[in-house]
Amino acid sequence: MGMQSVLRAIYPPQCLACGARVTSDFALCGTCWRDAAFITGLVCDKCGTPLPGDEGDRPEFCDDCLTIARPWERGRAALMYRDTGRRLVLALKHGDRQDIAKPAATWMAQAVRPILLPGMVVAPVPLHWQRLFRRRYNQAALLSARVARLAGLDHCPDLLRRARKTGTQDGRDRDGRFANVAGAMTVPPGRADRIRGRAVLLVDDVMTSGATFSAAAEACLAAGAGQVFILSLARVAKDA
C-alpha cells in the first residue's frame, strides 16, 4: 500500500461543511451539496442575486440594484448565504478553515466567468490591519488569489487599504452599513498605476447590502480604474 493510500485510510476525505465521509478531497456530501443553494439561471447583473424567470438577451436587476446607485458595473455570487453556504463562509472567516478557499474559488470562478474581461486586475476587499493581525489571514485574499489564478488574470492582494477601522456590519440597517464604511478604503499611491484605466474585479466572501463593495469600488475609481466588477462567495438576499 502506497503512502497516499495509507494516509487516506487513516484520514479519509471529509465533507467540507459537516465532516461526513466523502469520496474525494475538498468535496461536499450529498446532503450539504443539496443544501448549498448554488446560484444558477437568471441573476441580477449588478449583484448576482437569483431572479425569477428565464435568462434572456438583456441584463436584469433586483429591486435593490434598481433603487441603490452601485458604483460598479456588474457582479456575481456563487452561493446564497444560507444553510451550507453560510456554514462554509463562517468556517472560512472565523474557523481557520483555509482549506475551504480552494473549492470555493472554483465555484466563484465559474460564476464570474460570463462577466470577465481580458486584462482585469483581481483584488480582495481588505481587512483593517488590527483585524488581520487577530485573524492572521484575509479570507477575501485567499479567494481572490485562487480566482485570479483560475481565470489567468493579474492579482494585486494589497491594492486596497483600510484607511480607518470600522466596526462590524452585523446588526446595522442598510443606511448604517453604508455610513460605517464610507470613505474607509483607499488605494495607496504605489498601487494606483496597477489599475489606471483597467477593469478591476473586487472579491469578498459575502455581500449583504453592498456597502463594503461600494466603498472599495469608489476607492478604485478615484484611483483611476476604468471599471469595477464584483464577486462574492455568498450573497445575502431578502428571501433567503
How would you sum up this structure, described in words?
The structure is a single chain. The protein has helices spanning 3-10, 30-34, 63-67, 83-94, 101-112, 129-135, 139-151, 174-181, 189-195, 211-222, and strands at 74-80, 121-124, 154-155, 161-162, 185-186, 199-207, 227-235. The chain is an alpha/beta fold and 240 residues long. The protein folds into two domains: 1-34, no CATH class; 41-235, 3-Layer(aba) Sandwich (Rossmann fold). A five-stranded parallel beta sheet has the order 1-7-6-2-3, with helices on both faces. The chain has a two-stranded antiparallel ribbon with strand order 4-5. Helix 5 (101-112) crosses helix 7 (139-151) and helix 8 runs parallel beside helix 10. The radius of gyration is 18 Å and the shape is globular. The mean pLDDT is 89.
